[in-house]
Amino acid sequence: MAHLAVERNLASRTLEAYGRDLDSFCAWLGHRGLGLGDVERSTVRNFIGERRDGGLSARSAARLLSSLRGFFLYLAREGVISTDPTAELRSPSLWKTVPHALTTSEVEHLLAAPDPSTPLGLRDRAMLETLYATGVRVSELVGLTLENLRLDPGFVRIMGKGRKERLVPLGSSAVEWVDRYLREARPALDRLGVPEVFLNHRGGPLTRQGFWKILRAHGLRAGIRTRLTPHVLRHSFATHLVEHGADLRSVQMMLGHASLTTTEIYTHVARERLRRLYDEKHPRA
Protein backbone atom coordinates (compact mmCIF):
# COMPACT_ATOMS: atom_id res chain seq x y z
CA MET A 1 0.00 0.00 0.00
CA ALA A 2 2.92 2.33 0.67
CA HIS A 3 4.24 1.54 -2.82
CA LEU A 4 0.85 2.41 -4.36
CA ALA A 5 0.59 5.63 -2.37
CA VAL A 6 4.15 6.91 -2.76
CA GLU A 7 5.55 5.46 -5.96
CA ARG A 8 2.37 5.15 -8.03
CA ASN A 9 0.72 8.20 -6.44
CA LEU A 10 -2.79 6.71 -6.51
CA ALA A 11 -5.75 8.69 -5.23
CA SER A 12 -7.01 8.00 -1.71
CA ARG A 13 -10.26 6.37 -2.85
CA THR A 14 -8.36 4.11 -5.24
CA LEU A 15 -6.07 3.12 -2.37
CA GLU A 16 -9.10 2.34 -0.22
CA ALA A 17 -10.51 0.10 -2.96
CA TYR A 18 -7.18 -1.72 -3.34
CA GLY A 19 -6.99 -2.18 0.41
CA ARG A 20 -10.50 -3.65 0.62
CA ASP A 21 -9.76 -6.05 -2.25
CA LEU A 22 -6.48 -7.27 -0.75
CA ASP A 23 -7.91 -7.55 2.78
CA SER A 24 -10.77 -9.63 1.40
CA PHE A 25 -8.40 -11.90 -0.53
CA CYS A 26 -6.00 -12.40 2.38
CA ALA A 27 -8.89 -13.19 4.74
CA TRP A 28 -10.21 -15.72 2.22
CA LEU A 29 -6.75 -17.36 2.05
CA GLY A 30 -6.49 -17.40 5.83
CA HIS A 31 -9.80 -19.24 6.21
CA ARG A 32 -8.42 -21.95 3.95
CA GLY A 33 -5.06 -22.17 5.66
CA LEU A 34 -3.22 -20.83 2.60
CA GLY A 35 -0.31 -18.42 2.40
CA LEU A 36 0.81 -16.21 -0.49
CA GLY A 37 3.31 -18.86 -1.59
CA ASP A 38 0.44 -21.34 -2.00
CA VAL A 39 -1.53 -19.22 -4.44
CA GLU A 40 -1.89 -20.65 -7.94
CA ARG A 41 -3.89 -19.51 -10.95
CA SER A 42 -6.76 -21.79 -9.90
CA THR A 43 -6.73 -20.22 -6.41
CA VAL A 44 -7.34 -16.76 -7.84
CA ARG A 45 -10.00 -18.14 -10.20
CA ASN A 46 -11.80 -19.81 -7.30
CA PHE A 47 -11.69 -16.64 -5.19
CA ILE A 48 -13.15 -14.45 -7.94
CA GLY A 49 -15.61 -17.19 -8.92
CA GLU A 50 -17.00 -17.31 -5.39
CA ARG A 51 -17.39 -13.54 -5.39
CA ARG A 52 -19.20 -13.70 -8.74
CA ASP A 53 -21.52 -16.39 -7.40
CA GLY A 54 -22.23 -14.08 -4.48
CA GLY A 55 -23.49 -11.36 -6.83
CA LEU A 56 -20.31 -9.43 -7.73
CA SER A 57 -20.71 -7.77 -11.13
CA ALA A 58 -18.35 -8.48 -14.01
CA ARG A 59 -17.02 -4.93 -13.78
CA SER A 60 -16.28 -5.24 -10.06
CA ALA A 61 -14.72 -8.66 -10.66
CA ALA A 62 -12.43 -7.11 -13.28
CA ARG A 63 -11.38 -4.44 -10.79
CA LEU A 64 -10.77 -7.12 -8.19
CA LEU A 65 -8.54 -9.05 -10.59
CA SER A 66 -6.71 -5.82 -11.43
CA SER A 67 -5.99 -5.30 -7.72
CA LEU A 68 -4.64 -8.83 -7.38
CA ARG A 69 -2.56 -8.49 -10.54
CA GLY A 70 -0.88 -5.38 -9.18
CA PHE A 71 -0.32 -7.08 -5.83
CA PHE A 72 1.28 -10.24 -7.23
CA LEU A 73 3.37 -8.31 -9.74
CA TYR A 74 4.74 -6.30 -6.83
CA LEU A 75 5.44 -9.47 -4.80
CA ALA A 76 7.24 -11.06 -7.76
CA ARG A 77 9.39 -7.96 -8.30
CA GLU A 78 10.26 -7.89 -4.60
CA GLY A 79 11.23 -11.58 -4.67
CA VAL A 80 8.54 -12.61 -2.19
CA ILE A 81 7.12 -15.12 -4.70
CA SER A 82 8.82 -16.83 -7.63
CA THR A 83 5.91 -16.90 -10.09
CA ASP A 84 2.95 -14.59 -10.62
CA PRO A 85 -0.31 -16.63 -10.51
CA THR A 86 -2.24 -13.85 -12.26
CA ALA A 87 0.16 -13.45 -15.18
CA GLU A 88 -1.99 -15.18 -17.80
CA LEU A 89 -5.44 -14.76 -16.29
CA ARG A 90 -7.95 -13.08 -18.57
CA SER A 91 -10.23 -10.38 -17.20
CA PRO A 92 -13.92 -11.21 -16.73
CA SER A 93 -15.81 -10.14 -19.83
CA LEU A 94 -17.16 -6.61 -19.58
CA TRP A 95 -19.23 -6.55 -22.76
CA LYS A 96 -22.43 -7.45 -20.90
CA THR A 97 -22.06 -4.50 -18.55
CA VAL A 98 -22.69 -1.78 -21.11
CA PRO A 99 -23.36 1.31 -18.98
CA HIS A 100 -26.85 2.74 -18.85
CA ALA A 101 -27.16 6.21 -20.34
CA LEU A 102 -30.00 8.69 -20.20
CA THR A 103 -31.71 9.81 -23.36
CA THR A 104 -31.20 13.42 -24.40
CA SER A 105 -34.82 14.08 -23.43
CA GLU A 106 -34.25 12.66 -19.94
CA VAL A 107 -31.14 14.82 -19.57
CA GLU A 108 -33.12 17.92 -20.52
CA HIS A 109 -35.81 17.10 -17.94
CA LEU A 110 -33.15 16.46 -15.29
CA LEU A 111 -31.35 19.74 -15.97
CA ALA A 112 -34.64 21.62 -15.76
CA ALA A 113 -35.66 20.00 -12.44
CA PRO A 114 -33.94 22.42 -9.97
CA ASP A 115 -35.63 25.72 -9.12
CA PRO A 116 -33.09 28.42 -10.10
CA SER A 117 -35.01 31.11 -8.19
CA THR A 118 -33.37 29.89 -4.96
CA PRO A 119 -29.61 29.85 -4.17
CA LEU A 120 -29.55 26.06 -3.69
CA GLY A 121 -31.65 25.47 -6.78
CA LEU A 122 -29.34 27.67 -8.83
CA ARG A 123 -26.36 25.78 -7.41
CA ASP A 124 -27.95 22.45 -8.32
CA ARG A 125 -28.65 23.58 -11.90
CA ALA A 126 -25.05 24.76 -12.27
CA MET A 127 -23.72 21.44 -10.87
CA LEU A 128 -25.88 19.29 -13.13
CA GLU A 129 -24.96 21.38 -16.17
CA THR A 130 -21.27 21.06 -15.29
CA LEU A 131 -21.46 17.30 -14.75
CA TYR A 132 -23.21 16.66 -18.06
CA ALA A 133 -21.02 19.17 -19.94
CA THR A 134 -17.74 17.66 -18.76
CA GLY A 135 -18.37 14.03 -17.79
CA VAL A 136 -16.19 14.42 -14.69
CA ARG A 137 -16.34 11.96 -11.80
CA VAL A 138 -18.43 13.03 -8.80
CA SER A 139 -15.28 13.38 -6.67
CA GLU A 140 -13.83 15.68 -9.34
CA LEU A 141 -17.02 17.75 -9.44
CA VAL A 142 -17.29 18.37 -5.69
CA GLY A 143 -13.52 18.92 -5.50
CA LEU A 144 -13.46 21.53 -8.28
CA THR A 145 -11.92 24.76 -7.00
CA LEU A 146 -12.38 28.33 -8.17
CA GLU A 147 -8.78 28.55 -9.41
CA ASN A 148 -9.36 25.53 -11.68
CA LEU A 149 -12.51 26.99 -13.23
CA ARG A 150 -12.08 29.16 -16.32
CA LEU A 151 -15.38 30.47 -17.68
CA ASP A 152 -13.52 32.40 -20.36
CA PRO A 153 -12.53 30.60 -22.62
CA GLY A 154 -14.66 27.87 -20.99
CA PHE A 155 -12.82 24.91 -19.48
CA VAL A 156 -12.09 23.24 -16.16
CA ARG A 157 -8.76 21.89 -14.95
CA ILE A 158 -9.32 18.49 -13.35
CA MET A 159 -6.94 16.61 -11.10
CA GLY A 160 -7.95 13.01 -11.75
CA LYS A 161 -6.88 9.55 -10.69
CA GLY A 162 -3.18 9.17 -9.97
CA ARG A 163 -2.96 12.99 -9.66
CA LYS A 164 -3.08 13.25 -13.46
CA GLU A 165 -4.18 16.65 -14.68
CA ARG A 166 -6.46 17.20 -17.67
CA LEU A 167 -8.34 20.10 -19.23
CA VAL A 168 -12.00 19.56 -20.13
CA PRO A 169 -14.12 22.00 -22.18
CA LEU A 170 -17.12 23.58 -20.48
CA GLY A 171 -20.01 24.16 -22.91
CA SER A 172 -21.78 27.49 -23.32
CA SER A 173 -24.89 26.40 -21.41
CA ALA A 174 -22.81 25.23 -18.43
CA VAL A 175 -20.73 28.43 -18.54
CA GLU A 176 -23.91 30.51 -18.43
CA TRP A 177 -25.37 28.67 -15.42
CA VAL A 178 -22.11 28.48 -13.48
CA ASP A 179 -21.50 32.19 -14.07
CA ARG A 180 -24.99 32.97 -12.78
CA TYR A 181 -24.44 30.74 -9.75
CA LEU A 182 -21.14 32.46 -8.93
CA ARG A 183 -22.75 35.90 -9.15
CA GLU A 184 -26.18 35.30 -7.60
CA ALA A 185 -25.97 32.30 -5.27
CA ARG A 186 -22.45 31.45 -4.13
CA PRO A 187 -21.83 34.74 -2.27
CA ALA A 188 -24.87 34.00 -0.08
CA LEU A 189 -23.65 30.46 0.63
CA ASP A 190 -19.98 31.30 1.18
CA ARG A 191 -19.68 31.63 4.95
CA LEU A 192 -16.38 29.78 5.46
CA GLY A 193 -14.22 31.05 2.60
CA VAL A 194 -13.49 27.58 1.18
CA PRO A 195 -11.97 27.30 -2.33
CA GLU A 196 -14.44 24.77 -3.75
CA VAL A 197 -16.89 26.03 -6.38
CA PHE A 198 -20.00 24.22 -5.16
CA LEU A 199 -21.00 24.75 -1.51
CA ASN A 200 -23.55 23.19 0.80
CA HIS A 201 -26.16 25.14 2.75
CA ARG A 202 -23.70 25.59 5.65
CA GLY A 203 -21.05 27.16 3.43
CA GLY A 204 -18.70 24.17 3.30
CA PRO A 205 -17.78 22.03 0.30
CA LEU A 206 -20.29 19.44 -0.85
CA THR A 207 -19.52 15.77 -0.23
CA ARG A 208 -19.98 12.99 -2.75
CA GLN A 209 -22.82 11.59 -0.66
CA GLY A 210 -24.45 15.00 -0.51
CA PHE A 211 -24.42 15.32 -4.27
CA TRP A 212 -25.83 11.80 -4.69
CA LYS A 213 -28.85 12.78 -2.57
CA ILE A 214 -29.33 15.98 -4.57
CA LEU A 215 -29.13 14.09 -7.86
CA ARG A 216 -31.63 11.43 -6.76
CA ALA A 217 -34.13 14.07 -5.64
CA HIS A 218 -33.96 15.93 -8.94
CA GLY A 219 -34.12 12.64 -10.86
CA LEU A 220 -37.41 11.78 -9.18
CA ARG A 221 -38.69 15.28 -9.85
CA ALA A 222 -37.74 14.86 -13.52
CA GLY A 223 -39.65 11.60 -13.76
CA ILE A 224 -36.57 9.39 -14.22
CA ARG A 225 -37.45 5.99 -12.79
CA THR A 226 -34.27 4.11 -13.70
CA ARG A 227 -31.35 4.03 -11.24
CA LEU A 228 -29.70 7.45 -11.38
CA THR A 229 -26.13 8.00 -10.16
CA PRO A 230 -23.43 10.55 -11.00
CA HIS A 231 -21.77 7.83 -13.10
CA VAL A 232 -24.92 7.53 -15.22
CA LEU A 233 -24.51 11.19 -16.19
CA ARG A 234 -20.82 10.54 -16.93
CA HIS A 235 -21.83 7.64 -19.18
CA SER A 236 -24.48 9.81 -20.82
CA PHE A 237 -21.90 12.52 -21.56
CA ALA A 238 -19.60 10.00 -23.28
CA THR A 239 -22.37 8.12 -25.09
CA HIS A 240 -23.93 11.26 -26.54
CA LEU A 241 -20.53 12.50 -27.71
CA VAL A 242 -19.80 9.22 -29.50
CA GLU A 243 -23.30 9.10 -30.99
CA HIS A 244 -22.74 12.56 -32.48
CA GLY A 245 -19.42 11.61 -34.04
CA ALA A 246 -16.75 12.38 -31.43
CA ASP A 247 -13.61 10.27 -31.82
CA LEU A 248 -12.73 7.88 -29.01
CA ARG A 249 -9.32 9.41 -28.35
CA SER A 250 -10.88 12.79 -27.57
CA VAL A 251 -13.50 11.18 -25.33
CA GLN A 252 -10.73 9.25 -23.57
CA MET A 253 -8.86 12.47 -22.83
CA MET A 254 -11.97 14.21 -21.49
CA LEU A 255 -12.96 11.27 -19.30
CA GLY A 256 -9.43 10.86 -17.98
CA HIS A 257 -9.21 7.16 -18.88
CA ALA A 258 -5.67 5.81 -18.69
CA SER A 259 -6.35 3.30 -21.48
CA LEU A 260 -8.35 3.64 -24.70
CA THR A 261 -9.67 0.13 -24.04
CA THR A 262 -11.80 1.50 -21.21
CA THR A 263 -13.33 4.11 -23.53
CA GLU A 264 -14.08 1.63 -26.32
CA ILE A 265 -17.16 0.40 -24.45
CA TYR A 266 -18.97 3.48 -25.78
CA THR A 267 -18.69 2.19 -29.34
CA HIS A 268 -20.84 -0.75 -28.20
CA VAL A 269 -23.37 1.66 -26.73
CA ALA A 270 -23.60 3.65 -29.96
CA ARG A 271 -23.77 0.47 -32.04
CA GLU A 272 -26.62 -0.94 -29.98
CA ARG A 273 -28.63 2.26 -30.24
CA LEU A 274 -28.01 2.44 -33.99
CA ARG A 275 -29.30 -1.13 -34.35
CA ARG A 276 -32.44 -0.35 -32.35
CA LEU A 277 -33.07 2.77 -34.41
CA TYR A 278 -32.64 0.76 -37.63
CA ASP A 279 -35.03 -1.96 -36.42
CA GLU A 280 -37.63 0.64 -35.46
CA LYS A 281 -37.45 2.85 -38.54
CA HIS A 282 -36.38 0.79 -41.56
CA PRO A 283 -39.39 -0.66 -43.47
CA ARG A 284 -37.53 -3.91 -44.19
CA ALA A 285 -35.74 -4.31 -40.88
- Using only CA atoms, what is the Rg? 22 Å
Q: Helix content range of the residues, please?
A: 55-70%
Tell me the β content. Answer: under 5%
Instruction: Domain count, please report it.
Output: 2
Output the CATH class name of the largest domain: Mainly Alpha
> What is the string of SSEs from the N terminus onward?
HHHHHHHEEEHHHHHHH
End-to-end Cα distance, whole Å, is 54 Å
Named CATH architecture of the largest domain = Orthogonal Bundle
Oligomer: single chain
Strands ordered across the widest β-sheet = 1-2-3
CATH superfamily of the largest domain: Intergrase catalytic core
Keyword list:
285 residues, DNA polymerase, domain 1, 57% helix, 2 domains, mainly alpha, hpI Integrase, Chain A, three-stranded antiparallel β-sheet
